[in-house]
Amino acid sequence: MKEMLKTKLHKADICVVGGGIGGMFTAISAARHGAKVVLMHDRPVLGGNASSEIRMWISGAGTRVRDLQETGIMEELQLENMHRNPERNYSKWDALLYEMVRFEKNIDLILNCTCCDAQMEGSKIQSIKGFQLTTYTWHCVQADIFVDSSGDSILAPLTGAEYKVGREAKSEYGEEFGLEVADRHTMGMSILLQCRETDHPVRYTPPAWAYDFPDDDAMHNKPHNIYAINTNFYWIELGGLQNSIDDTEEIRDELLKIAFGVWDHMKNHGDHGAENWDLEWVGFLPGKRESRRYVGDYVLTQQDVEQCPHFDDVVAYGGWQIDNHLPGGFHMDAKGGKHLQKRRLSEPYGIPLRSLYSANIENLMFAGRNISASHIAFSSTRVMGTIGVIGQAVGTAAATAVKYGLTPRAAAATKIHEIQAALLEDDCFLPGLRRRPSALAQSAKLTCDYGDCSALLNGLDRRIWGNDNGYFGKTNKAITYTFDQPTHVQGVRLVLDSDLDREYTDGNPDALHTSTTLFFPKSYNGTTFGFPKCLIKHYKIEAKSESGAWETVLEVTDNHQRFIKHPLDLTATAVRFVPLSTYHSERKTEDYGSSTAHVFNFEVF
Fold this sequence. Notes:
Blueprint: E1 7-11, E2 14-17, H1 21-32, E3 37-40, H2 61-64, H3 73-84, H4 90-102, E4 107-110, E5 113-121, E6 124-132, E7 137-142, E8 145-148, H5 155-159, E9 163-164, H6 170-173, E10 189-190, E11 193-197, E12 237-238, H7 248-268, E13 277-282, E14 287-288, E15 293-294, H8 302-307, E16 314-318, E17 322-325, E18 340-343, E19 349-352, E20 364-366, H9 375-381, H10 384-404, H11 408-414, H12 416-425, H13 439-443, E21 445-448, E22 471-474, E23 479-496, E24 519-520, E25 538-544, E26 550-556, E27 563-580, E28 596-604
Parallel strand pairs: 1-7, 2-3, 2-8, 3-4, 8-20, 11-24
Antiparallel strand pairs: 5-6, 6-7, 9-15, 10-12, 10-14, 11-13, 16-19, 17-18, 21-23, 22-28, 23-27, 23-28, 25-26, 25-27
Helix pairs in contact: 1-10, 3-4, 10-11, 10-12
């Protein structure tokens, strides 16, 4: 007897399609703001291009421009990885990404499930449907707002949402790097390699179907320095001249032939210092750069990323260079950098909320490489550090829209200040904006046992534009809020120095800004990548009662995060924060290596 495959129904406030960095951060942010979230992802592991299936490290504004490291959920993830995975092990990384989503309250995670249908009512999405290969089950998700973080923008063809593919002509947006005539060419996709140096010679016999590259000219003079541990062979890239969705399988086959041929070249054709190196891993899932880009109420352009205008609805930022991989990919000669079009940026540019929701589908948002941007602007916004802050912004905005029963467009028009305030409160940086301190902190008297701590309430929780914006104190010296009368305190907010520029963090400098690495020279085998020495590890919060006695209400001995909010729920006449550092006889400390307490915010609320 024939059986029908079962269907499971999910009801949520917000449905996110795609579990890359953008989709993950969207789901986490929305869930933390009280929304019920379903995250549907078509792979067994989370992280998208950052996962163990593709292995591209997370890059962003802070990788290129000083003082612009992404904070919020992004720095939370990076610090957790540095703390628990100093060897940069991909299995531990996958587990961390899984943990952040699977065990976040309010998220229903559906893995191995491919979205393939959508039900519409006019210009509004009613539900989506996906097939889960591991259980042979259909999953139907009904939600108020849908967020497409699928990369390829699967909800565009399923809903009729407006989108673009390819490169614009100069006449469309007046961009310097625009074409004389528009085309549908894109950046290509890449397959990465992971290699490890051993203490003995390692033979390599390529598969018969691999391409043969007898010399550098045959490889179009692509860079292949085996001793640079941040080498990832990004130039094993194809697909820009084809359809980057329809032709993915064919492109993958060609990339594999190139990848194994490149390793054969390095092992068997000329002296590349690779005699003792072993090919540890080759990606069979290409990392895709570009396909469909949605059209929102605003399209970000080259002028926006270079001239950095202020947007009243700014909710995220970028700073990665204009990094336009030309469609020819591997087949273009690399001499003189002719296969890339680059321009460095010196300032962060804002990303408006109007670029993160659909122009014609009223409850569709997007968080990923598919935002509303021209091809040239996209060449900067596409990196995962920027995608992460976009995801946190979209999740916060979507949760706010749900809270008030609004569409994303209406929320952008009427609740933008609330959305921005929530992002700033959650340790996100927004160019041109300052966080407003709590009313309780502003009304209390702020003092410290050492130095000047007034910067703690200036609303900027990072070094930026030549200003430190923090307080340099000493360990075992308190920062205190004193109230005129016994006052109810709900909690405290802390932002500590996590060395965003990784200046004082041990480890190879090529890898300090990356969450993972692909090349392991023998000299680094077993080497861990350090933790920020300046972060405060041990501290306590004390409250003063009406009788005048100080009591420790909270003590943290193993902190490894920059941004912390502690609920307290107490009545006190004063509250103080005391960073601690205890010296042992061996003169080792319980901190990460610094006896200075550098704090960007300590605040009562």
